[in-house]
Amino acid sequence: MKYFILVALIASLGSIICGYVLDVDYTQKLIGFGVLGLFVVVFPLFAYHRWKGKNIKDYMLTQENLEKMRENQKN
Predict the structure, then answer these.
(1) SS3 string of the chain?
(2) CA gap 26, 9 in Å, rounded
(3) Which of 12, 48, 56, 68: CA 20 to 30 A from 37?
(4) What is the pLDDT of residues 52-73, one digit of tens each?
């Protein structure tokens, strides 16, 4: 999974860079597809890969977590 994300990131960044460097008729399309690839493919896959298997409640500010933080500050 992480190799697919890396390949998609390199392809998207390569498309954006080629769009800025090359002087062709479809320059804007290269930049657009690169940005689209980043925001539609790379970022969601990266987020899924990093959050897989973790409990979201551990990262939310609930009353229980606030009490744990206050307890840790006293120590």
Answers:
(1) CHHHHHHHHHHHHHHHHHHHHCCCCCHHHHHHHHHHHHHHHHHHHHHHHHHCCCCHHHHCCCHHHHHHHHHHHHC
(2) 21
(3) 56
(4) 888 888 778 888 888 888 888 8
CA 56 to chain centre: 17
For 15-65, the pLDDT digits (tens) are 999 999 998 999 999 999 999 999 999 999 999 998 888 888 877 888 888
Place of tokens 């998609």: 8
Q: What is the spatial distance between Cα 37 and Cα 31, in angstroms, rounded to a whole number? A: 10
